[in-house]
């Protein structure tokens, strides 16, 4: 295609001479449908390859177009633009990846549903796996965002619609060390974060905050707020083998089950979780551990 042969990015000539042939090869092999698509793909790939070249990393297209490599480039080599420009560049690179390397599911068979019950709490082992996976994310954005979701879900019982509108100044630390979150919206309230997750929450908040700016707490560089903000972010995270998927409904259910098993005063639990009825409790009761008969009998006698 002529558009591929004629394309010249605004890069130093020696750099383009090193990376250009492989970029053209990859885009030609991907078979773009239109000249515009060819230019879009070639431009996105050329600048990703130039950044990799400057960092001493492999510049072959097949190495640059893995999901991890794309996120690494956007996080380290494309920070000077706004979030919409990064999203546009990500979209072009991902479309080129699919055209060149094929679908993520090589067999073409759809992935089976996990069968994850959104009311099923995470075990202690699963929580540890989720935390380790969050710490191991390849970029600061993915790492901080993953830790924040864990702290807000497992530590504060917040669900996705409550997380999306939060601002950094909604998280406050009291003189006694308690960390509170001011929740906005229909279930507005103040929730105290569980002690175990409070340091994680303050760490993630410090990363997102900028002095004198009212920034979003989750994904502070993105001004777009939609119902899929959390799910889109989680889809970009690197999955660790054997680690369960982070589902905010399950994280909230974990908090509720722990609160019930800790015998939290019912009005306190309802207020902290933002419940208006007990219908939400019905779904998690099958996951609450029962007391041994002798302990249950002792509690009944001591009422």
Write up this protein.
With 303 residues, the chain is mainly α. The protein contains 15 helices and three strands. Strands 1-2-3 form a three-stranded antiparallel beta sheet. The longest helix is centred in the N-terminal third of the chain and has 20 residues, at 35-54. The protein is elongated, with a radius of gyration of 24 Å.
Please give a quick description of this structure.
This protein is mainly alpha-helical and 303 residues long. Residues 111-116 have low confidence and may be disordered. The chain contains 15 helices and three strands.
- Measured by DSSP, the beta-strand proportion falls in under 5%
Helix share, percent: 40-55%
The count of helical stretches stands at 15
Q: How do the strands line up in the largest sheet?
A: 1-2-3
Major pleated sheet: 3 strands, antiparallel
Radius of gyration: 24 Å
According to DSSP, the number of beta strands is 3
Return the average pLDDT rounded to an integer: 89
The end-to-end distance, rounded to whole angstroms, is 82 Å
Shape descriptor: elongated
Low-confidence stretches: 111-116
Could you state the order of secondary-structure elements as H and E?
Answer: HHHHHHHHHEEEHHHHHH
Structural class: mainly alpha
